[in-house]
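Help! Submission page says 'invalid entity' but I think these are all valid:
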Amino acid sequence: MAHSKPNKISRRDALKILTAATGAAALANLPPSWSKPGVEVGVLPVHAQTSVLHILQDPPPAELLDSPDACFDGQNIGLTAVISPPTAGILLRYALTYTVTGPNGSITAPVPPTGTLSTNASGQVNLTATVTPESSGAGTEGTLTVVWSFVNLTDGTNTVSQDVDIVIAC
Amino acid sequence: MQMTLFPRPAPGFQMETLEGEIVLLHPAYNIIIHSNQGGALIWSLCDGQRSVAEIVELLSAAYPESAGAIAVDVPQTIQELLSRGRQIEIRKGVW
């Protein structure tokens, strides 16, 4: 990005970057001089409040769980989705796919690879998926993809997806 | 405030401009943030791709006469948004 070495940029370039970063959305004209930032945070008045709309956040990294006999029983992968604000009982839909890039394999759990889960009090759901090689001698290699979305659009509307590289060498 | 952290607004904020100042609304949190131009500049530069130090350097290059104040104001403002919770997210690397 153009700002990677800001300590070496000229004032002219800095103003250009600021205009690009702020001009379209926030500030039609950059202030001629620096003004001490003032930020006030408040709560929307009741009449302006809407029903709580949640947001699916970027998923935390998937966990490759201990799978001692992955060639026969498959590799277990721990997947997590997180919503904000944290709320219990929000239904999330998951859809898993496995794209093979090497020896064949498939999702053997959960079956079917789509379903719904309810968030806990921390606004999280946890899902364990299993990818199993078609041939225990060949292993498998591919990408497991999970797409999370809200079951009820009144709870939230965005979706997030996560790719997990799978390599089971046998 | 560590200068090597990368801040960005929490997802879901809607920004409105009013006479050079900004108002940020978050319908999920029922939060409203009002900021003057200085705060608006900092907010706009918190894109998850710039560290706190880079934001300071950029603003200092743009307003060299206020470099000393900017070095204090930027981390202070980000820290204030952090301490009030949920307005801004931060981590040790680009988002």
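Support: the input was valid. A stray whitespace character was the problem, and the output above is from the cleaned input. Strands of chain A lie at 39-43, 55-56, 63-64, 75-84, 91-100, 105-109, 114-118, 124-133, 140-150, 160-168.
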